[in-house]
C-alpha cells in the first residue's frame, strides 16, 4: 500500500514537472510578446501555474524558474493588468518560493530570484494602502506575507538585509482589521540602543563545569525529536523540565501555514453575495492576513540572532497599558480569531524562551528620575506581560488557554522575581492555581508546568513559600460550571470574552485568604498532585488524573523536593510514598519511569537534608526510614524485574543510590543486603545504561560508614568498577571512572578513620586501581576528568612499604607524569583543574617525598621538577581562573619546608607574580572567580610564610620588595573578607613570624622580617 502511494506521488510529481515546464515557457513567451497574447490568456496561464501542487519537487530546472520569476517581477513592477491579474502573478511567485520539504534551503543560484521575489512582496506590502476594505487587495497582502515567509525559510541570510523593513510590515499587518485599532503605514523599525550582555565571539574552550548533584535523566529517542535548535534556546539551565513532551515549549504548534505546501484556500463561493456575506468574506481574508503576518513574525524570530531580535522588543512589547495598541499584546487579547490569538501567543513564547539571558537584567523601581535605566524599562515590560497574560486567562478556547499558560510558564522562567516588585510571584500563583481544576487535561498539565516553573525559580522567595504552604482554596469551583470548553475544531469561530477583567492581578490578596483556611492540612498544590495520582483524601476525592496529568504531578513532586523538601515534602512523606508506591505498581510504563525518577529526587533531597546534623536532631528519622521500607517491600524492587525495559532498571539503580547513609544505616539488615545484591547483579547486566547506573550507585554506597568498613563490599565494588572501566561503551566507562573517583575517596577516608579496615585492602588492589586510572587518562575527556581525580586520591594511599616493592616507584612516576600532562595540555578545563587538584592531594603524602631523600637530605629529582614547574607556570598566567585557583592550592600542599626543596623560592616568586596578574582578565566570564583566586593565592603565601626559615630571608628580600605593596593590599582585603575559620593560614603566618623574631637574626634578616610583619601583622 505504501509503495503504491509513493509511486502515485512520484508519478504526480513527474506530471506536474512537465506541466510546470510547459506553462513556464508559455508565460515567458506571453510576457516577452513572442506570441499573440492578451490579459485573459496571461491570467489563465498564471491560474494554471497556481493550481499545481508545489508540495512535491516539480521545479527541475533552476534556470527556467529564474526566467519565470524575473518576467513576473518585471510584469508586476510595470503595474500591467488588473488587480486580479496582479494577485494571480503574486500567487505564482509565492508558489515558486514554496518549500518542497521541511528545513530545505535554496541553492546559491536561486538566491537572486528569491531576492527579486522578496523585493516585489515588500513593495506591495509597503506601498500606500488605498482601500483596506478591498477583497483583492487583502488577498494580495496575504500572498505577499506568505511569499516573504517562504523566502526567509529558504534564504535566511536575506532577512538580515531587510530585518527592520520586514518587522515594520509585520507590526502593521498583524493588527489589520482588528476593531478600534487604527491602520498605520508600514515603516522600517530601528533597533534600540540597549545594554545587552554579549556572549564571547571567540570560540571558547571546553570548561567542563561543576557537576550538578541532581543527575540528568535519560531521554528517550522520541523526546529528542522535533525541538527547535536546543543550543539556541536558554531553556532550563537548572529550570523546570516538563514531563509531557507533547507540550514542548519550542514546538511549532499553533503556527499555521508554515511549510504547508499547497495551502488549502477557502473558496469565495463559500460566502453569499449579500452585503453581510461580502463583509464576512472580507473579515475572513483580513483574518488570514493577520495570521500570515504573525506566522512571518515567528519565522523571523526563529531565524534572527537572539541579541539582534531583542533590540526590537520595545517595538512589540509595551511598557504599560497606556503604551498604545500596536503591539503583540493587542494581537492575543483582541484578535477575534482564536487561531490568530494562539499564533500570537506562540510568537510571544518564542520571544520569551530566546531572551532569558537579557531579561535577567530587569528590575522594578519606584524612583522618579530624569533618566530611566533600561533594566527598569525591561522590568515594566515584564510587569505588563504579567498583567496581559492574566487577562487572557479568561479565554474560553482550550487550545488558546493552553498556549497562554505555556507563555506564562516561559515568562516565569525568564523573570528575576527577586528584582521585581514584591508580591508579583504571589499574584502569578493566584492566577494559575484555578486551572489545576479545569476539566480539560491539557489545561491542567500546562498549569502544572507553570507552577513547576514557580517551584524552580531562583532564588526562593519568602512569598513563594508562603503561597505554597496555603491550604486548598475554593478556587477549584471556578470551573465546576464550565462545561463548554472548546476544542480546536471550533477555534476560528471564537473570540475572547468581551467582558474580561483582570484575573485577580490587582485585587487585594485578602480575597483568597478567607478561602485558604478550608480543607485538610495539606498544602494545596501537593494535595492536588496526590489526588491526581489517586491518593484518597478525607473528602473522598477519587478523581484520578489523566496520564499526562499524572506524569506532570510526579514532576511537580520532584521539583518540590529540590528547594521545598522541608516545607512541603517531609511533613507529608506518608501520603507521598503512598502515591509513589501506586505509580510504581501501575501498568503504564511511563508512569513507572517518572515515579522512579521522583523517588530518586526525593531520596537525594532527603539525604542532603539529613546530612545537616542540626536538622537531624529536630526531626524523627522514622518517617524517612518508613518511606524507603515501603518502597523496598515491593514496588521499587519490581522495577528490577523488567527485562524488556532497561531504562526502568537503570532508574531503579539510581533510586538505590540516593538512599543516603543516614537512612541506609537504619534499614533492616535484610533490606540492606537486598539493595547491595540487586546493584551487584546489575553491574553484569547486558544493557549499558543499567550497568553504568549500578556501578555508580555502588560507588555512592561505598561512602556509607558501615559499608566503607566492610572490606568484602569494598573489594567487590572495586572489582566491579575495574571491570566496567574496560567496557566498550563510553557511557559505561564514564560512570565507572566517576565511581573509581568516589571509591578512591572512600579509601582515603578509611585510611584515616578506620585504619584496621584499610589495612585489609591489599597493596595489589591499590596498584591495580592506580594503573587503571593511568590507562583511563588516554580515554575520552569525560573519563579522563574522573581518572585524574582517582590518581590524586590513590597517590595519597601509597605507603613507605609499598614503595619498596618494584612496580610501585615506576607506577608513581607514571602517575605524576600523567597528571602534569593533563594539567598542562588539552582544551577541557575540567580535566585541567581536576589534575591540579589531584596534584594537591598527592603532594600531601609525605611518603612520596622520601624517595627523593639522599643521605637524609631532600633533593629535587624524580616527579618534583616537572610538577613544580607546571604548577608555577599555570598559576602565573593561565587564562582559566579555576585552573589557576587549583594550581595555587596545589602549591600549598607540601607540609614542611624540606618538601619544597629549592623550589621554595620559585613558588614564592610565582605566587607573587600570579597575584599581580590576577587583575588581567582575557575572558570576562572569569571575573566571577577573581576574588577566589586572590584569596587562594594569599592563603598559599600564608602557608609558605609559616615554613620560613632563617636562611630563607635574605634570598626572598629582593622578590618581596618588588611586590610588597601589592601583597599588602591584597592580604588586607582578604583578611577583611574571610571569616576567621577560613583565614587560619594567615593567622598562622603571623604566629610563625613572631616565633622567627625570637631567633638570633642578623641586621639584614631583621630588616626583611620587618617587611613580612608589615604585610601580615594586620587586624585579625
From TrEMBL:
Species this protein is from: Acanthoscelides obtectus
InterPro entries documented for this protein: ARM-like, ARM-type_fold, DUF4042, HEAT6
Pfam families: DUF4042 (PF13251)
Ranges annotated as spanning the membrane: none
Domain spans labelled DUF4042: 288-463
This protein's name: HEAT repeat-containing protein 6
Positions of the UniProt region annotated as Disordered: 204-237, 258-277
Basic residues biased stretches: 209-227
Highest taxon listed in the record's lineage: Eukaryota
Amino acid at each position: 500500500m505504501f509503495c503504491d502511494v509513493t509511486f502515485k506521488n512520484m508519478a504526480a510529481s513527474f506530471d506536474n514537472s512537465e506541466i510546470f515546464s510547459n506553462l513556464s515557457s508559455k508565460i515567458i513567451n506571453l510576457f516577452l510578446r513572442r506570441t499573440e497574447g492578451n490579459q485573459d490568456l496571461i491570467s489563465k496561464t498564471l491560474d494554471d501555474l497556481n493550481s499545481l501542487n508545489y508540495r512535491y519537487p516539480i521545479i527541475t530546472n533552476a534556470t527556467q524558474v529564474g526566467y519565470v520569476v524575473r518576467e513576473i517581477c518585471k510584469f508586476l513592477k510595470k503595474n500591467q493588468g488588473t488587480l486580479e491579474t496582479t494577485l494571480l502573478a503574486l500567487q505564482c511567485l509565492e508558489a515558486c518560493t514554496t518549500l518542497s520539504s521541511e528545513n530545505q534551503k535554496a541553492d546559491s543560484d536561486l538566491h537572486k530570484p528569491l531576492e527579486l521575489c522578496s523585493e516585489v512582496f515588500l513593495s506591495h506590502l509597503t506601498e500606500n494602502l488605498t482601500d483596506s476594505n478591498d477583497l483583492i487587495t487583502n488577498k494580495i497582502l496575504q500572498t505577499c506575507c506568505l511569499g516573504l515567509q517562504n523566502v526567509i525559510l529558504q534564504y535566511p541570510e536575506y532577512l538580515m538585509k531587510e530585518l527592520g523593513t520586514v518587522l515594520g510590515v509585520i507590526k502593521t499587518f498583524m493588527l489589520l482589521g482588528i476593531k478600534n485599532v487604527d491602520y498605520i503605514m508600514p515603516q522600517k523599525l530601528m533597533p534600540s540602543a540597549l545594554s545587552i550582555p554579549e556572549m564571547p565571539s571567540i570560540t571558547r574552550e571546553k570548561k567542563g563545569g561543576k557537576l550538578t548533584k541532581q543527575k540528568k535523566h535519560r531521554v528517550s529517542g522520541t523526546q529528542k525529536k522535533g525541538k527547535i535548535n536546543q543550543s539556541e534556546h536558554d531553556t532550563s539551565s537548572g529550570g523546570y523540565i516538563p514531563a509531557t513532551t507533547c507540550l514542548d515549549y519550542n514546538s511549532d504548534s499553533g503556527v499555521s501555514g508554515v511549510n504547508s505546501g499547497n495551502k488549502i484556500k477557502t473558496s469565495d463561493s463559500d460566502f453569499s453575495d449579500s452585503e453581510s456575506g461580502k463583509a464576512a468574506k472580507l473579515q475572513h481574508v483580513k483574518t488570514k492576513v493577520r495570521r500570515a503576518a504573525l506566522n512571518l513574525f515567528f519565522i523571523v524570530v526563529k531565524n534572527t540572532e537572539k541579541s539582534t531580535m531583542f533590540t526590537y522588543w520595545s517595538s512589540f512589547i509595551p511598557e504599560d497599558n497606556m503604551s498604545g495598541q500596536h503591539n503583540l499584546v493587542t494581537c492575543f487579547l483582541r484578535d477575534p480569531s482564536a487561531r490568530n490569538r494562539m499564533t500570537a501567543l506562540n510568537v510571544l513564547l518564542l520571544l520569551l524562551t530566546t531572551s532569558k539571558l537579557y531579561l535577567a537584567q530587569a528590575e522594578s523601581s519606584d524612583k522618579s528620575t530624569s533618566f530611566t535605566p533600561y533594566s527598569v524599562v525591561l522590568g515594566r515590560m515584564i510587569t505588563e506581560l504579567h498583567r496581559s497574560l492574566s487577562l487572557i486567562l479568561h479565554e474560553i478556547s482550550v487550545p488558546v488557554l493552553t498556549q497562554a499558560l505555556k507563555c506564562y510558564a516561559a515568562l516565569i522562567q525568564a523573570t528575576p522575581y527577586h528584582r521585581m516588585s514584591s508580591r508579583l510571584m504571589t499574584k502569578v500563583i493566584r492566577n494559575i492555581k484555578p486551572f489545576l481544576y479545569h476539566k480539560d487535561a491539557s489545561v491542567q498539565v500546562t498549569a502544572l508546568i507553570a507552577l513547576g516553573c514557580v517551584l524552580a525559580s531562583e532564588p526562593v522567595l519568602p512569598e513563594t513559600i508562603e503561597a505554597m504552604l496555603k491550604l486548598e482554596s475554593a478556587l477549584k469551583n471556578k470551573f465546576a460550571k464550565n462545561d463548554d470548553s472548546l476544542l480546536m475544531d471550533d477555534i476560528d469561530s471564537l473570540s475572547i470574552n468581551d467582558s474580561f477583567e483582570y484575573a485577580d492581578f490587582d485585587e487585594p490578596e485578602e480575597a483568597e485568604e478567607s478561602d485558604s483556611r478550608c480543607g485538610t492540612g495539606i498544602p494545596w498544590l501537593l494535595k492536588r498532585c496526590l489526588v491526581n495520582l489517586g491518593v484518597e483524601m478525607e473528602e473522598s476525592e477519587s478523581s484520578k488524573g489523566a496520564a499526562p496529568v499524572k506524569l506532570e504531578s510526579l514532576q511537580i513532586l520532584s521539583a518540590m523536593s529540590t528547594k521545598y523538601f522541608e516545607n512541603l515534602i517531609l511533613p507529608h512523606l506518608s501520603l507521598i510514598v503512598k502515591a509513589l508506591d501506586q505509580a510504581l505498581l501501575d501498568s503504564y510504563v511511563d508512569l513507572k519511569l517518572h515515579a522512579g525518577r521522583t523517588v530518586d529526587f526525593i531520596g537525594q533531597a532527603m539525604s542532603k537534608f539529613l546530612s545537616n546534623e542540626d536538622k537531624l536532631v529536630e526531626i524523627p528519622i522514622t518517617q524517612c526510614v518508613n518511606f524507603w521500607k515501603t518502597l523496598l517491600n515491593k514496588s521499587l524492587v519490581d522495577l528490577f524485574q523488567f527485562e524488556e525495559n532497561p531504562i526502568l532498571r537503570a532508574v531503579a539503580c539510581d533510586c538505590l543510590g540516593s538512599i543516603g547513609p543516614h537512612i541506609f544505616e537504619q534499614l533492616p539488615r535484610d533490606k540492606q543486603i537486598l539493595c547491595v545484591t540487586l546493584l551487584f547483579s546489575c553491574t553484569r547486566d547486558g544493557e549499558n545504561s543499567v550497568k553504568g547506573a549500578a556501578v555508580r550507585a555502588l560507588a555512592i554506597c561505598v561512602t556509607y560508614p558501615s559499608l566503607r568498613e566492610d572490606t568484602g563490599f569494598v573489594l567487590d565494588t572495586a572489582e566491579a568498577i575495574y571491570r566496567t572501566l574496560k567496557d566498550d561503551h563510553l557511557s559505561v566507562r564514564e560512570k565507572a571512572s566517576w565511581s573509581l573517583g568516589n571509591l578512591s575517596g572512600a579509601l582515603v577516608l578509611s585510611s584515616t578513620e578506620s585504619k584496621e579496615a584499610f589495612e585489609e585492602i591489599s597493596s595489589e588492589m591499590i596498584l591495580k586501581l592506580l594503573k587503571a586510572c593511568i590507562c583511563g587518562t588516554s580515554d575520552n575527556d569525560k573519563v579522563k576528568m574522573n581518572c585524574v581525580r582517582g590518581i590524586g586520591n590513590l597517590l595519597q594511599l601509597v605507603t613507605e612499604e609499598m614503595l619498596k616493592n618494584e612496580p610501585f616507584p615506576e607506577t608513581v612516576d607514571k602517575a605524576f607524569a600523567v597528571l602534569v600532562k593533563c594539567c598542562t595540555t588539552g582544551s577541557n578545563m575540567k580535566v585541567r583543574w581536576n589534575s591540579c587538584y589531584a596534584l594537591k592531594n598527592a603532594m600531601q603524602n609525605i611518603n612520596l617525598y622520601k624517595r627523593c631523600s639522599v643521605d637524609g637530605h631532600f633533593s629535587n629529582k624524580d616527579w618534583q621538577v616537572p610538577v613544580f614547574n607546571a604548577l608555577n607556570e599555570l598559576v602565573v598566567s593561565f587564562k582559566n581562573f579555576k585552573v589557576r585557583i587549583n594550581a595555587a592550592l596545589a602549591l600549598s600542599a607540601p607540609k614542611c619546608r624540606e618538601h619544597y626543596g629549592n623550589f621554595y623560592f620559585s613558588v614564592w616568586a610565582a605566587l607573587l607574580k600570579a597575584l599581580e596578574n590576577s587583575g588581567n582578565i582575557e575572558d570576562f566570564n572569569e571575573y566571577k572567580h577573581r576574588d577566589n583566586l586572590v584569596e587562594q593565592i594569599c592563603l598559599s603565601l600564608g602557608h609558605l610564610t609559616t615554613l620560613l626559615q632563617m636562611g630563607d630571608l635574605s634570598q626572598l628580600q629582593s622578590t618581596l620588595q618588588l611586590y610588597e605593596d601589592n601583597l599588602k593590599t591584597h592580604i588586607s582585603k582578604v583578611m577583611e573578607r574571610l571569616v576567621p575559620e577560613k583565614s587560619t593560614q594567615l593567622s598562622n603566618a603571623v604566629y610563625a613570624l613572631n616565633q622567627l623574631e625570637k631567633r638570633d637574626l642578623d641586621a639584614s634578616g631583621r630588616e626583611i622580617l620587618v617587611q613580612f610583619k608589615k604585610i601580615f601583622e594586620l587586624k585579625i
